[in-house]
Design a protein that fits this description.
The protein has 159 residues and is of the alpha+beta class. The protein has one domain. It is 35% helix and 25% strand. The radius of gyration is 22 Å and the shape is elongated.
């Protein structure tokens, strides 16, 4: 078995370096995108449920606390039994039956003249350093119907 010449080794090294230069950043982008799918999808599910309830005349459900109450730190956590049994989570059809990295809260505020608002929040500590990412959507309802407020607030997206 012969060994590689210096030129062959240089070519192998250059090709491997080029592949890594393209693959590693793409892998990191994909990893970050997959971590951000949970809060975006979760808030979309909550908002859809809230607007649907308000549109049917039931109004927004009452507020629900941050669930789970402790934001998972740097890992995906299993919820204890009954974590999503709060009446609001049931009304919204929201919860997890698998490990997840974010905690969710729902705040409902009645306003004057039949107006009401909601705020849904997702908080996560993806790297376990005690600093959380926050994602938030809002909605409102009045005599003309229920709707989402355009946009999503994001603070420290990848903290």
């Amino acid at each position: 078995m012969r060994s590689l010449s210096a030129v062959e080794a240089a070519v192998v090294f250059a090709v491997a370096g080029s592949v890594l230069a393209v693959a590693v950043p793409e892998f990191i982008r994909g990893l970050q995108a997959s971590r951000l799918a949970e809060p975006v999808d979760g808030l979309k599910r909550i908002a859809t449920g809230a607007v649907s309830l308000a549109s049917s005349g039931s109004g927004f459900p009452p507020s629900a606390p941050l669930t789970p109450s402790e934001v998972p730190r740097g890992t995906r956590a299993e919820d204890p039994p009954g974590a999503w049994d709060h009446p609001t989570w049931r009304a919204l059809g929201f919860g997890f039956d698998h490990p997840h990295a974010f905690s969710f809260a729902f705040e409902s505020t009645p306003g004057p003249g039949g107006q009401s608002r909601f705020r849904a929040v997702a908080q996560g500590d993806l790297d376990g350093d005690g600093v959380t990412s926050t994602f938030e959507v809002r909605g409102e309802a009045d005599s003309t119907g229920a709707r989402l407020v355009p946009g999503m607030y994001v603070d420290r997206e990848v903290e």
